[in-house]
Amino acid sequence: MALLDIDKLNAAPLRREPYDYLVVENFVKPEVFGEVSRDFPSMDVPGSVPPSELDIHGRFAEMLAEMDGPAFRQAVEAKFGIDLGGKPTMFTVRGRCRATDGKIHTDSKSKIITVLLYMNDDWDADGGRLRILNSDDLNDVAAEVPPNGGTLLIFRRSDTSYHGHEPFEGKRRAIQMNWVTSGGVVAWEQFRHRLSAMSKKRKAAAVERM
Ligand SMILES: O=C(O)CCC(=O)C(=O)O
Ligand SMILES: [Fe+2]
Fold first, then answer.
1. Which has the closest alpha carbon to 40: 29, 30, 51?
2. Where does the record place the Fe2OG dioxygenase domain (predicted)?
3. Are 8 and 26 in contact (CB under 8 A)?
4. Is residue 203 assigned to a domain?
5. Residues 6+ apart with CB under 8 A from 147
6. What is the pLDDT averaged over residues 20-45?
7. Is 107 touching ligand 1 by the criterion CB < 6 Å?
8. Which mutation among 100, 153, 163 tests ligand 1's pocket best, with the greatest number of atoms within 8 A of CB?
9. Per the domain annotation, does 38 fall within a domain?
């Protein structure tokens, strides 16, 4: 059975202002969300981690495979009027938010489309709600997306695709998927993540020795 509600994505309006984006609540079908959430990989590090560094299994693995499959790609292509054939995908997973996360940015130029899929239960906190911004000002808000379980946000990266959120510290689960310009980008990003993970482990070991 499909875990993702592609029909709901097809029916969602594409917003054009301040840049191209759309939001779909309950994109992960509510009847399977609990199982997907149960299989979310356990993560002890903050920051975004590539799936290759995690124990990806069960329903969560099935869901990533669906996101990486042709039905989802074709729906995004139709919605955004874009050809993603031959463009590699890149995934990262986040389990925790640091107080320093959420600063305004547009995403790097190598990203063509950014997909965010949130995996929290209902979100009560004031912080951590992603804002689609009209400018590089966190109060110049076009839309706010609470990272509730199953909510999908997709936007077309551009020099003005400003987004960010008020600080939040603690458990905040999200999957980011990008279609990127080339395979070299994916290799470079994975290398960068590995370096960063190594340096975090070294720091943790140094603290233990103290
Ligand atoms: O977690 C989010 O809501 C957004 C994260 C983000 O913008 C990023 O990692 O580039
Ligand atoms: Fe971003």
1. 51
2. 86-182
3. yes
4. no
5. 118, 120, 123, 128, 129, 130, 172, 173, 174
6. 96
7. yes
8. 163
9. yes
Entry pTM: 0.94
| Cβ atoms within 10 Å, residue 194 | 13
Taking all residues of the chain, what is their mean pLDDT, rounded to a whole number?
94
pLDDT in tens, 173-190: 999 999 999 989 888 888
Q: Let me know if residue 207 belongs to a domain.
A: no
Count of domains observed in the chain: 1
Q: Which domain holds residue 14?
A: 6-182
Q: Give the pLDDT of residue 93.
A: 97
Residue of the CA atom closest to atom 3 of ligand 1: 130
CATH number of the domain where residue 67 is located:
2.60.120.620
Query: Is 163 a pocket residue for ligand 1 (Cβ < 6 Å)?
Result: yes
Neighbour-count burial of 150, counting CB atoms closer than 10 A to its CB (0-12 exposed, 13-18 middle, 19+ buried): buried
Atom 2 of ligand 1, nearest CA residue:
130
pLDDT tens digits for range 78-132: 999 999 999 999 999 999 999 999 999 999 999 999 999 999 999 999 999 999 9
Q: Which atom of ligand 1 is nearest to the CA of 92?
A: 9
